[in-house]
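[job 0417] fold request received: Nitrogenase iron-molybdenum cofactor biosynthesis protein NifN
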Amino acid sequence: MATVVKSKKACTVNPLKMSQPVGGALAFMGVRGSMPLLHGSQGCTSFGLVLFVRHFRESIPLQTTAMSEVATVLGGFENVEQAVLNIAQRTQPGLIGICSTGVTETKGDDVEGFITLIRERHPELAHIGLVYASTPDFKGAFQDGWAATVTRMVETLVEVPSGPPRRGQVNLLPGCHLTPGDIEELREIIEAFGLVPVILPDLSDSLDGHIPDDFTPTTLGGVTLTDIAGMGRSELTLAIGEQMRPAAAALGAKTGVPYVLFERLTGLVANDAFLMRLSELSGRPVPAKYRRQRSQLEDAMLDGHFFFGGCKVALGAEPDLLFAVGSFLVEMGCRIGAAVTTTESPLLERLPCDEVLIGDLEDLEQRAAGCDLLITHAHGRQMAERLELPFFRLGLPMFDRLGAAHQLTVGYRGTRGLVFDIGNLLLAHGHEPGPDDWRLPDVHEPAAATLAAD
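[job 0417] inference complete; emitting structure tokens
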């Protein structure tokens, strides 16, 4: 059991976390034909836009209500209304997802009331979905914004079922710690059992790096609004990460669909439980493909434990990612020497280490001294240089490497890749034995000592 401690510093020196609106905007990007809209100043949206473009290296749909000082004081209805009308006219979206920011939350704008009034004044917008998520950036973190937004989409867009469950249909609610590559891997695993997954949000279809035939100003792909509406007719909801519990519970309360939550899908035992649950639901045995992948993972763990054993790791990540990777590294024989995260979560107390700090990268750097490996996102690169530690990039943002959207850490295959990637990093930075390691004592010293004694 870990002790969870909050940093008492007066300010954040080197941020580890990102804000709730950024997490909410990314969740909306997993819906087809969506346009995320940040209700705040232009600077808030510009920051998120640049961050996503650098990480995914793709065209990112993101708009702003462009609140000025005067508009903030007087109220933002006109800005929201004009932004919605402009987006509807110019981009023809299927969904406009509105995320609040610190400035409008502090003012106390009633955005739900704004949406009701806009619907009354503009019936021509009836075919466009409007979803508002409260994501103040003066509290919480990226993970909280993602979770709140997915929950609001469930509450707003999912319809109460009017018929029996569709045989073989399952809902998948992935946490923000899963990359588009991770989500694609989970889709393939679920479909291998003959099941039909409805994924909310589905970044694997919108931010997976494909080139479309025609330009579209909204999201390139993602789950459709029709599929979201029909999630209430699924047989089961699979929630990945503790952050998705509220969304899964909201879906169950509204439609009666039961849910199973998997805290992590990184590791041997965790994936065994996931595949066995799919086997029970489908009535099919685990496909031979995944039995072989399991055997390959076992072999990789055997090969790698010589290099992981006793390794002291410094970790900085969102709670669900911290728990998934940290728990697996301990299973491989590592020790967590420092663990810093961004926001509160019930999982933190169960992380296999002495202490988890809710803090920033400066806190992580102070605690990482004496560790053998550093794992965090790209903003940890200067810290790694100062501490002279091997650095494994994990999480968002990752702007100094290609393929961040396709990094894989789930399933047997993703876990095996993680063993190889981290193991090779440890091998490359390990001490290479040389002649001085086996230096023999001077052969003349014992003779000289004997003469002196005589």
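[job 0417] notes: Residues 288-308 form the longest helix (21 residues). The chain has three domains: 20-138, 169-291, 306-428.
[job 0417] exit 0
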